[in-house]
Design goal:
Helices cover about 40% and strands about 15% of the residues. It is an alpha+beta fold. The chain has two domains: about 100 residues, Nucleic acid-binding proteins (OB fold (Dihydrolipoamide Acetyltransferase, E2P)), CATH 2.40.50; about 180 residues, Hypothetical protein af1432 (Orthogonal Bundle), CATH 1.10.3210. Helix 5 crosses helix 10. The longest helix is centred in the C-terminal third of the chain and has 25 residues.
Length: about 350
């Protein structure tokens, strides 16, 4: 079986079939050409460099090509990098196509069933019918189930957009439940449609890249266009409800500098923004946290987008955990002794 790129350790010889995701011709200080590369497979992306042994034909290989690469895994500026010795196109049957693109570990059909149940839970019929039309359309449903949530940061894999949307919905509904002033059906609908533009912004035939339309418009504008098209197909859809849904899409990045043309100006838009931000950050950090869990040390590598490292060691010592479990047991089983206060083993931060 083809070994995945992120399964190699620093110093290992590399011999894998993967997808070329980028190729750039650079020059050393001595004006000698070399190739700066990037490869991807179901484990993620890894940088590469090829100092020599390539010709003009190699420099014309387009991103999206499947290649067999041989070389050595090295470290450059704290990150893994393949020092490539040779590139070749693999023979038919030499690799499993399923290993070329990362995919959600969650079952897509189960996630789609969850999505359908959520739509049925929307009480306001115009919103429910709109959502049923959008997510019931076979072409849109297929694209929504396959699209990544991002290219690199959070849920960058097939099914990632669907997984992210369900997470955002869960966070948003939990937040909305604390505030009776919030229109919960609008929060539900807004959470489901906030990123629908990513079905067009990204393409996943040649790994995960931004489409031309995505580069020119971005998924917020595309999402409003998709929503407007579906609203136009509904009979007597309330105009004001359409404004509010479009506002959630346009404002869900929360800040002008992060791409939102308007700031959240409704309670529902504010909730969807925070729910989206929470899942993007948690999912992004968790990918790195889990990938580096077996690496030595108590901290992750520096995460540029978050401008910090994250602690990955055990939060509490084994002894404190044992005290916590013992305290729980005693609370449940110890008989009440009149006239005496029972001794309690308290966990740090537990109310006394």
């Amino acid at each position: 079986m083809n070994k995945l790129l992120r399964e190699y350790q620093i110093g290992d010889p590399v011999d894998s079939v993967c997808m070329l995701t980028s190729l750039t011709i650079k020059q050393t200080r001595q004006q000698k050409p070399f190739l700066k590369l990037e490869f991807g497979d179901s484990s993620g992306r890894v940088a590469g460099v090829m100092w020599e042994g390539f010709d003009e034909e190699v420099t014309r290989i387009a991103p999206g090509e499947i290649l067999r690469i041989q070389g050595k895994m090295e470290e450059w500026e704290g990150q893994a990098q393949v020092s490539v010795k040779s590139l070749a196109r693999p023979a038919p049957g030499e690799y499993d196509p399923a290993q070329l693109l990362p995919a959600s570990e969650k079952d897509v059909e189960s996630m789609l069933a969850e999505l359908d149940d959520i739509i049925l839970s929307v009480s306001y019929s115009p919103l429910r019918h709109l959502l049923s039309s959008i997510f019931g359309d076979s072409d849109f449903r297929e694209a929504f189930a396959k699209a990544p949530a991002a290219k690199r940061w959070h849920q960058p894999y097939l099914g990632g957009l669907l997984e992210h949307t369900l997470n955002v919905y869960s966070h948003a509904v939990a937040l909305a439940g604390r505030y009776p002033q919030v229109e919960s059906d609008l929060v539900k609908a807004g959470a489901l449609v906030h990123d629908i533009g990513k079905t067009v912004e990204y393409q996943w035939e040649n790994f995960f890249e931004t489409s031309t339309q995505g580069r020119l418009l971005g998924h917020l504008v595309i999402g409003v266009e998709i929503l407007g098209s579906w609203i136009g197909r509904q009979k007597n859809f309330p105009e004001e409800a359409g404004w509010h849904l479009k506002h959630i899409i346009l404002s869900h990045h929360g800040h002008f500098e992060f791409g939102s043309p308007v700031l959240p100006r409704t309670l529902e838009a504010l909730i969807v923004h925070f729910a989206d931000d929470l899942d993007a950050k948690m999912s992004g950090v968790l990918r790195i946290y889990e990938r580096e869990q077996e690496d030595p040390g108590l901290w992750t590598s520096y995460i540029k987008l978050m401008e910090r490292e994250f602690y990955k060691g055990p939060v509490f010592s084994l002894k404190l955990r044992e005290n916590k479990n013992q305290s729980k047991t005693e609370k449940k089983t110890a008989p009440e002794v009149k006239g005496h206060q029972q001794e309690q083993f308290l966990f740090p931060g537990e109310d006394q």
